[in-house]
Amino acid sequence: MSPDTIGLALLLLGVLLLVAKFVRVKSKLTQKLFLPSSIIGGGIALILGPDILGRFLDSKYAEYLGVKTDAFAGGGLFGENVIDVWSALPGLLISVVFAGLFLGKPLPKFRDAAQLAGPQLAFGLTLSTGQYVIGLLLAILVLAPVFGMPLLTGALIEIGFVGGHGTAAGLGDTFEKAGFPEGQDLAVGMATVGLLSGIILGIILINWGVRRRKTAVLDSKAEISDAEQAGLMVGEKRGPGAMLTVHPSSLDPLALHFGLIAIAVLIGQVILSAMQAVEQVLWADTIEIFAYVPLFPLAMIGGILLQILIDRFDKNAIVDSMMIERVQGFSLDMLIISAMATLSLQVLAENLLPFLLLAVAGIVWVVCAFLFLAPRMMPSHWFERGIGDFGQSLGVTATGLVLMRIVDPELKTPAYPAFGYKQLVFEPFFGGGLVTAAAIPLIISPHVGAVPFLIIMAVGLAASLYAGLFIFGRKRGKAARQAEENAAASA
Length: 491
Fold this sequence. Notes:
By secondary structure, the chain is mainly α. It contains 22 helices and no strands.
């Protein structure tokens, strides 16, 4: 692959993002759905790519219309070489996103984090373990015997929904080694369905919550401005997106923070290589796990270790969390648009019914859990706190944050800190963490298999349900009684 082709592929992604932003500004539908520009751009690239425009230009219909040509058949409007570059980007960029998750954010004290994160973690684990249980039951009882699908398809709901496009694309090598390369396209398709469902259903639930007075901050009179719906920051809403913590004459702040993320990724690579070496020496003849584990969850652990050093030695506070978020945001936008642009619609069409069964089952589970479990598991502000995990469990963390931002725009509830503290424990394992990465090798392993892994996830589901309903749920009852007593006393 020539450097010119790589450069052209990156430039085209930038152009597509700008076109997508223009669509977001001009289209009322995309504004009402709060669709990110990266999703819009990914949809445009998919239409102009090999599976839609390319197939049309190579079809008998194009010949009938007199526009048949082989020039764009292989890669659509962009060409095969550009598509090849785009297909490699998600697996690289996801490590950048995960490496910066905890950089620039001082790690909280354990007691403070545990009090806020406990019910949030129980609810998040309920959603994720439940997705594995539902997916594996479908795979064992329906998908494998009826459609001939491999049992590892039972992990697609959690990989695509909670993990998102980055995790789905990043596990491409794992699917390849497991003998099911189509799994990557199915997972990316699941991520697209989950993200769209998370945003659309999230907006519907927020409107329902406001009308039914389930929200503590947002009321039916609150309005979102046209500029906010278009995704624009105007007037006093504008502010610095990052801080200049070092003088640009010595080193540009963006370069500094990119360097820190690079160190976190390299630490993750060292950890992964060490784990793989130990596995080869001790138990590789029996079972292999780390041979299938991708880099990005270890890059996140590298970021945590680096942040511990930063907390200890960074006396000048040169690490800015907002600058880290800008690097992550850029990487995530490029990741999503490139993953969607290279999605294989043919694979989805060939496995449409199994795909729909998994997607619908996953969506129904998350919606029901939000409506019936979140009110009973969260000690307070169940809607604001639950909607974040709802969004994350269908889309990605960013979806959850967007929905929380809508229901709590001024951060008046404990939803944000509770969600953030939960991520410290949740992310290293689920949503692209070690459990997500190890699920496929464990399911296909002759020493573990789908049924034992299903039992493990079922035990995890039962434990998280018990903790949420009978430990943290009791605190909700005590909090409600205390509020009633305080109201009666004040009256």
